[in-house]
Design goal:
- By secondary structure, the chain is of the alpha/beta class.
- The protein is built from eleven helices and 13 strands.
- Strands 4-3-5-12-6-13 form a six-stranded mixed sheet, with helices on both faces. Strands 9-8-10-7-11 form a five-stranded mixed sheet. The protein has a two-stranded antiparallel sheet with strand order 1-2.
- The chain has two domains: 31-126 and 251-316, Bordetella uptake gene, domain 1 (D-Maltodextrin-Binding Protein, domain 2, 3-Layer(aba) Sandwich), CATH 3.40.190.150; 129-223, 3-Layer(aba) Sandwich (D-Maltodextrin-Binding Protein, domain 2), CATH 3.40.190.
């Protein structure tokens, strides 16, 4: 009799532990959840996770807070998240920089984007915009390539600094289009675009290119994503302009430390999907494309992006720090 009772108790414990979102017999979550943002307060890397946290607070039934841990090209926040307990109570808001390009940018990166994290969901994406000064006699990517090949090393592109996404976009363009462009780095993207608008530099792959083109101070040639951006459906892609394989897309994603129970990851992925699909998200972040995904799809994206950017670093001979 005692043996039968023990067996029943053990079976009940196993069944309870197997329930979705249940860990150690407790229904997740039972306390507040934090999302580490590797950014300073106020920027897109802060506003996005705060909006997601607000939605998750409602779906999870527990307070979800954002903790800013900026610095070191997002490394400080990512390292903190990687070393946090894998219990579902610490998440991290990451980007193409922290999960893909940092692998090539830093010789001793203190975290592994694939091994140290459990993907939850892709959140949103946006392209860069290839813009030129209006005085440049080109209106298409094909014309730009022809001009660059006719004047090797003469055309200059601006960026927010060595290793930034707009720098890497320019290097990828050089590699895949087979052109020689001069790189002119600035301390940030804002002064770089100012000099493009002033005509001191010929072109730039900029995040604010769409807005700047509407003022007439620059001419917009293309978006850098593999497919046309819904926010600018009439603007062709760089690929359409004759550069096969060109794809520079900024993306943001939600992850947990590796080892977080699968049931919790599944719960967070499902709830994040619900939050992102709320109409208010698309309205609030109209400059982005809301793109929730499965954990598996996000994991595959990370694995694809790392070698893609490594090839650009090697081609441009950008030495890791």
């Amino acid at each position: 009799m005692t043996g039968d009772r023990s067996a029943l108790v053990l079976l009940a414990a196993v069944l309870i532990a197997a329930l979705p979102g249940t860990v150690g017999g407790q229904q997740y979550p039972v306390k507040p959840v934090r999302i580490i943002s590797p950014f300073v307060a106020g920027g897109m890397g802060d506003l996005l996770p705060r909006a997601i946290a607000q939605g998750l607070t409602e779906t999870l039934g527990q307070q979800v807070i954002v903790e800013n841990r900026a610095g070191g090209s997002q490394i400080i926040g990512m390292q903190l998240a990687a070393k946090s307990p894998p219990d579902g109570y610490t998440l991290v808001f990451a980007t193409v920089t922290s999960l893909a390009t940092n692998v090539s940018a830093f010789r001793n990166l203190p975290y592994n984007p694939v091994r140290d994290f459990a993907p939850i969901s892709l959140c949103c994406t946006t392209p860069l915009y290839l813009v030129v000064h209006p005085s440049l006699p080109v209106r298409t990517v094909k014309q730009l390539i022809a001009l660059a090949k006719a004047q090797p090393g003469r055309l200059a592109f601006a960026s927010g600094g060595h290793g930034t996404t707009n720098h890497l976009a320019g290097e990828m363009f050089k590699l895949l289009a087979g052109v020689d462009l001069l790189h002119v780095p600035y301390k940030s993207a804002a002064p770089a675009m100012v000099d493009v608008m002033a005509g001191h530099v010929s072109l730039m792959f900029g995040a604010a290119g769409l807005t700047d083109a509407q003022t007439g101070k620059v001419r917009l040639l293309a978006v850098t994503s593999a497919r046309r951006f819904p926010g600018a459906p009439d603007v062709p892609t760089v690929q359409e302009g004759g550069v096969p394989g060109f794809d520079v897309t900024l993306w943001w994603a939600l992850l947990a430390p590796a080892g977080t129970p699968a049931a919790i990851v599944a719960r967070l992925s499902e709830d994040t999907d619900k939050v992102l699909r709320q109409p208010v998200m698309a309205e609030r972040f109209s400059s982005l494309e809301i793109t929730p995904s499965t954990p598996e799809a996000l994991g595959e994206l990370i694995k694809r992006e790392i070698p893609k950017w490594r090839k650009v670093f090697e081609s441009a001979k950008i030495a890791p720090e």
